[in-house]
Amino acid sequence: MSYKPLGIALNAILPSFVHEFETMPTTEIAAGSLFATFSVVIMVAIGEPFLIKFGATKGVRYLMCFAVLSLCICLAILKQTFDPMLLHNLDTWADAHLSLLFVSLTVVSLALFALSCAISTTIYQRKDL
Predict the structure, then answer these.
(1) Which H/E stretch holds residue 58?
(2) Cα–Cα distance measured from residue 35 to residue 30, given in angstroms and rounded to the nearest whole number
(3) What digits encode the pLDDT tens for the residues 54-72?
(4) In angstroms, rounded to a whole number, what is the distance separating the alpha carbons of residues 5 and 1?
(5) Mean pLDDT across the stretch 68-81?
(6) Reduced to 3 states, what is the DSSP secondary structure of residue 126?
(7) Alpha carbon distances (Å) from 4 to 28, 72, 124
(8) Exposed, middle or buried by CB within 10 Å (0-12, 13-18, 19+), for 116?
(9) Residues 6 or more apart from 36 whose CB is under 8 A from it?
(10) 68 vs 65: CA distance, rounded Å
(11) What is the mean pLDDT of residues 99-106?
């Protein structure tokens, strides 16, 4: 079920009832919905091969270990690499090129999902059932 129409309707109705309510542009609601959708696609694409290879119980354990380890490594790299001025410039660039970011997010997430399906299919074909 898509909550995008509900968010757009509430965004249009609430300012008449709540005086301090600040409306969001419809494009921001749609962009947030797309970002959330493709973030979930990426998470499923990462988790699927673990579940196919190790089963549900071990796969979830290994997936959590992989997620925590990769988060720690990414945070250590980001802490050493980025300075505040670079992050401010990146924020300014992201605001100017929002559509390019969403197109690239769509392409990357779907490509990652296709790769995940190919890996999972190969693992499943090699399994002894």
Answers:
(1) helix 26-81
(2) 9
(3) 888 898 898 889 889 998 9
(4) 10
(5) 86
(6) helix
(7) 11, 33, 36
(8) buried
(9) none
(10) 5
(11) 86
pTM value surpassing 0.90: no
pLDDT digits (tens, 9 = 90+) for 2-25: 666 776 777 777 666 666 666 677
- The number of residues in the chain equals 129
Burial profile 43-78: b = 16 or more Cβ within 10 angstroms, e = fewer: eebbbbbbbbbeeeeebeeebeeeeeeeeeeeeeee
Q: Which of 27, 60, 25 is nearest to 46 (CA)?
A: 60
**What whole-number distance in Å separates Cα of residue 104 and Cα of residue 110?**
10
Distance CA 41, CA 50 (A): 15
Which of 27-31, 88-92, 98-102 comes out lowest in average pLDDT? 27-31
